[in-house]
Amino acid sequence: MKNVVITGTSSGIGFDLVKIYSKKKYNILSLSRSQINIKGVNHVIFDITDQKSIDNIKNIIKKEFKVVDILINNAGKLINKPFLDMSMEDFDSVFRVNLFGVANLIKNLYPMFNKSSHVVNISSIGGIIGSSKFNGLTAYSSSKGALNILTEVLAEEFKESGPKFNSLCLGSVQTKMLEEAFPGYKGQVKPKDMAKFIFDFANKGSSFFNGKVIPVSLSNP
């Protein structure tokens, strides 16, 4: 059975992903800043911006998994503020979660990937050139745009040895993060439905895609 590592699992899409993988008896390592209540799941409190936290996860995986077949980088941070109200600390905190932490986790787990491993970066439709943009999301959208470029470059750099890298750029999903950033706004997709899509893509997509930035949205652009 495949070994799966998922970040950002305390709620929303990540939480539903853990439930799906758990029901299908995958070996899961669930990572988030908060505890979760899913029986029988190997969950570790995790801060993607903290090197000690990443070192701890690396040691756990070496002992328990040996190989990471699927890594789903789902952890994310969104601050909704007008650009002129954004401090550099705000920008830094968003990029540390959405870009720098992802890059650091991938780098640290690289020795445990193999040629067939698949890294799925959960990005945003707002990070794609030409898509609709929203006021207040300068840091969030630009960090996701950078994550998409990271995905493309890593796929090229490791195309001979693996793993494969892809970004799924999600439209509006009715998550806690969306509700907090845009009170009253209703997402087009439920977290559990998006989780089902991501599950299928993470397991099968690497046979067809590498280095791709894929919009997953009901709106166009």
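^ that was protein a. below is b, sequence first then the tokens
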Amino acid sequence: MAFSGPVPNDKLYLEQVRYGKDEQKRRKESPIFVSGDEVARLLETNQGVYMVDPRMGFNNRTHRLFVSKHVPTEAEDNKAWKTLGHRHTVEAVIHWLAGKGYSIVDGKRYDWEAGDFICVPIFAWHRHVNLGHEPAIHVASTTGPLYMGIGQAVYEDERYPEYWIYAQQGEDALRTLIPGGVADAAGGDGGSQAARLYAEQVAFAFNEEQRRRESRVLVRGSELRFEPTAMGNVAYVVDSRIGFHIKALSTVVAEIPVGKRSGAHRHLYDEIDYVLSGRGRCIIDDQAFEIKKGDTLAVPVFAWHQYFNTGESPLRILAHSTRPAMENLGLVLTHQGEVADH
């Protein structure tokens, strides 16, 4: 290995040692609250608005949240995808806030309306069609920051073929859900343990593609099942434990009745919360936020947080987290505080 100059080993090691302390400071200084009114104002003149992203100063390292607007199909300013759409090597969960239409995901059509969810398999081409006469709006969380951090984020968009990496390599590459994946699981096992383990490694891409194609995609908002937990009434929407082939994201919706509170807890993973309906107050560590429909909160890692419904209708919170990613790394720790009064 060649070095351009002396290696400051002591300095590098000290940076490692103090990282945890520095990270606590970064979490404290990270933005938390995003006004729904400001997002709505920006969406009037933009097709999409990022609410939470590390490139905007947030300390969320593993996922982002943004809102997108889809104009009616017949509109003159319709710049929607026409054939393939786009695909990416990051997980994505989409929630339709308004409108009615359908999505083509990996060649299959899924009809949706406001309140429904779409879980997009990794690297599946997908596009959305608005069948109404008003803009259709969705809010989405993706694991882009996590995959960008490990150098594995690939985005291919039909409108920008000059940036394609795999799609231009032929029909198989255009259709695969595994970037650079092979069409078979050839590798042989040779009879030994090492040969068998390596053959499994070679075959992983082929098998992973099948798992992605067999995963659930559509969730009807009308079919959400709210059940009591220590954190309150919660409906699991997208999770690896309920039939989705997803490795990093988890999505739940919490509903807090009028005059009630959620539980309080903290955990070692990123969470981004979006207020679907109602009004209330959110306490995050030593800060209090008055919230209403459309607001967003980026909950810092390991910060205590709790919701209170101070309005006159149920308070619903859409919560995206990267708990599964942290579980796969063995880094999940959740502390339960005050329990919900439902």
